[in-house]
Amino acid sequence: MSHDKDYSTVFTQELTGNYTSSTLYPTQKYHGIFNPTGSPTSDKFISSLSVALLVIFFLMLRSSASPFLNPMGEARKAASSSFYFSLSFFLYTWVISSTVLTIIPHFSSHYNGVIAAALFFPMFFSSIVALLFGRLIIRSIFYCLVRSGIYQSRERIESTDDNSWSQSIGYLKPPKMVAFHRPFRKLAKSAALLSISLSLLHAHCWSRTLSVFKINKRNNAGAICRALFSPFATNEDGADEQTIWILWIITLSMMLVVFAQDELNGYHCRSDNAGFTIHFRKTKSRRKSSITDDDLDMDCNRSRSKNQSNESSTRMIFRRANQLEVPRDTLPMVPWLSLFAAHSVLDIFISLKVFMGRVDARLMHPALQGQKHSGMLQNKNKDTKSKVHSSVVKYLQEKYPGCIYDYSTSEKKDLWFDFMADCGDGFNSSYQVARLLAQRHITVTRNGKEHRLPRGDFLVIGGDLAYPEPTEASYEKRFFRTFEDAMSPPPSFRRNKIATNKLDICVDGWDEKLCFNGTVGEHSHEKYLGPSTFVVPGNHDWYDGLATYSRFILHRDFLGGWLMPQQRSYFAIKLPGGWWILGMDCALSADIDIEQFKFFADIADTAVGPSDAVILVNHEPHWVTDFDNGKKGDNLSERNITELTEIHLRGKVRCRLAGDLHHYTRHVPLSRRKKAQSQRRVRSYSLDRMSKKIVSGDFKRKPDNFEPFTEDNKPHLIVSGGGGAFLHGTNTFDRDIKVGPKGIEYTRVVAYPNEATSTCLGWLNMYQFRWRGWRCDLIFAVTYLGIVSSFFPLCGIYEDYEQFNPNHELRLLFVWLARMVVSLVLRMISSEWYSLICFLGVLLMMIALQAPEHHIKPLQRYTLAFGHAFAHITAAITCLVFVQYVAEWAIKESIISLNSIERSPLTPNPNSLAGSIYGEYKTHFYPALRNFTHTDSSLLQGPFRNEFISYTASLIKVLIDFGNSCWDFLFSNVPLLKTTLKLFDLPSLVAQNHHEMCSQLCINGKECLFSHDSTIFQRISRKIFAPYVTGVTLYYIFIAVPLAGTIFGTWLAISLNVFKSMCDLAFSSLQIQHYKNFVKLHVNKDGELEVYAIGMRKVPTSWVKDPFFEGDCSQQKNLSVQPSWTFQCPSKWIPANSQNKAFNPHVIDHCTIPKRRIKGS
Asked: Which of 61-75, 258-272, 672-686 shows the highest mean pLDDT?
């Protein structure tokens, strides 16, 4: 069959109405299944039966193998991402496929690709119609079955009576099903995938010489072709072309069968019906089974005295019941480089500049609580005040209600507590940290050995509870939701409840005897046995003036299973062994206010003993940020804190904890060599894998008069901000810093992740920013188009290059390209004002992004900014030159034939790609489809003895006639296929309109490459200009946006790893959710503070419900159950791949901090 014919005759006859398929195309003989004149032969019937049996066997195999192929038991769902990804995939596929189909036939013999494209479009439209119609029928049948009561959902068993099945199985109302239109995107993807697969199969197996699908090795038929088309062979050479539609019907039927299975299994119900199970209604009594009623019960009141076999059986039922349940409505990491973040930044800016600074919430808290001033200690001398008695603490608690908490009154001589910060980001990382904090014990590895660490008696959170701004939605979804899943609150917990009296703890629904120690009915914090949490606000919590923090932290009772007793944004906690924790609120001023200063000074003067030790907790580690920003003298932060530590605490501060930087580091002070060598001791060490090399390297570079050991009465400085937010690297911060007005020298002995790992992660921006920061694509596209919009079209660019570089030398190519860039920039400066404004906007934006930092000099900063800006300008113009050059090259080399005659806008040019595809469709597929669909329905008429068969035949006749009418309407009356092909032919659209525009702009030999006559330009028809700009924009964005993302990511990587700057922007763009950390602290019996820093190299990204989870039981409001913090498995979700060792927590740092040393002691 020849495919080189001119299709102009076809279109001429169609336009005149004289077209008939019988005169233009030879009559084809159809055999086998579609033979209208005879029945298939016996051997063909056996072959078709074999295919049918294989299909049935495949469906049975899929049904039986699904539990093994999908071990986690997750319901099959569409791998649907955001709408942007689907749109991008569609546009990229459109541009690439149309370009390839236009160019390839001119350089190779792969003309089968055009034939495959001719098959794709009618098959795609037919697949959508067939899938929609089939799904409508399946959904209607299922709905009728559910409404009629034939199918019911299985409810949790309410009764333990063995006599009646109906008493132990309840029936629910019909489930709420997903709207029919919601999965339409999945349907379109399925139709496209099916059409693409069969089109590629056609291109691979079709023989243009034999006009059949190849099935013999002598014809170079592959194994796939022989396996699929041999059962349908019409002769010894191969199978008829309509066989491809047989495969389409078989595959389409399989897809509908799978959809019906999912529909009947309840996978199309809403999320609140997760795990919906369908079964036939049973009227007979329940058969005896090894599963007892105690096993079928959800076991909310399970006794601990059950034997091991029953408990194991119950847990196996839990595992089977919860196989399908996974966390829903979880949030990913915050996309900082996006329009969403820009909107948040605008809100934050307005809040800070317009509303903040007028009212300080820290000053309002004491006034609202009615601070009491008692004269209890007025007559006490200094010796009495220096001793910390319980009466002193009670006096301070009465004076400052809701601020001071005493954990030293318990019988235990040691105490564990936890610290974490920066937790309200993506669900995976935030929940993993909260889950480990909720466990009664965690097993960690240290020096290759396993250690068991208990849960802390309380948890201190160091701020930044939710990102990017403190809204109710972000607090609920990014902060409270993770902790509630990690350890559930009491059944009496309500989200809208406002705690008016936190001194009286409400634990309704929990067993009161297990929650409190002492007299029944006394619900004070001192008697509470469960874990508590104390929260200091961070800078992100202050962006709304602490309003959301006050509503959710100060006026709620529980954070998951942790009690929240505090009533102010700052607090003090007394620990055993003479240790204190002072939690400070530095707001956005990098310091505490006067009220806080008075509060902490009063505690230091009256309650903190001379040998006591203090742990200071605040959000931002100013000891790192001040040195990193080059602050000195009066510009240093924490002036009030410095006054407090030097005058009132006087060397009692032994440790400082902070977050804000999303990594882990620990700094220890350097001491000059004033003592003998034997007196030098290293009191801390790191268990980081590379810490020994890093620390030893630091020591070698130090002068001889410095040694890194802990100097007496100088605190350890710990940063632990790995509670869930994106990772910050450690490679941009100096190892050696000077702290405070006196410039006390500290060195970093631990960094997690270490500098080498942080540097490697920083380079990811070069090749991963494009897909990690895809939300910037719109910004890049608009910016680049704004720069080059005044240059369309570049008429004569092909001839200009041919004259400049006739021999196509590579060196002259770059010279010509540089000449074009410079010429167009000069043109932009001289006359193109719109492009010039965009150019200046890019330049100013790059200067603003390259913010001044301590590590980079001003000259380097401006050099980087200008280099970054000109890289984008050069890339924008280069992409324009390339697109315009290719358009004229395709015209000059006759790759694209121009349309020389006027025709309907919906009619493709016969010499274009659209005309070629439409011609192949008319030749190959239209006769077969017409023969297949236009079945002679009169054959169904005749004398039927059975009245039912007669009615059935009449119904089939009506359906066939309706199908024929629909097919004629879509593909004949409505120009659906022609219009689609016309729009699909993007290269011809661009080339044709480019030629017509240039023919008007360059009239009479005018120069139109570097300048345009504005009067002529305005006379160009919109019908020419609009399609041209649309087509060129698609090609331009296709090339420019990935290049822009690569340039921006490269700039971030170079700024980060070479110039040690842009840490926030570079790592926030990566959105790395791994390398999380938190700290467990232990006041041991010797009165020393042990610090265990726990790290996780990776966090799980897939979760399933824990089969041993007991939290559902704690939510039974009508029962008094044990508290969630007593459960062995308090967390709802566990990693789907729990065997991955990278998820296991390990000790990244361990040190022991003694109390302050007093001279002479």
From this structure: 258-272
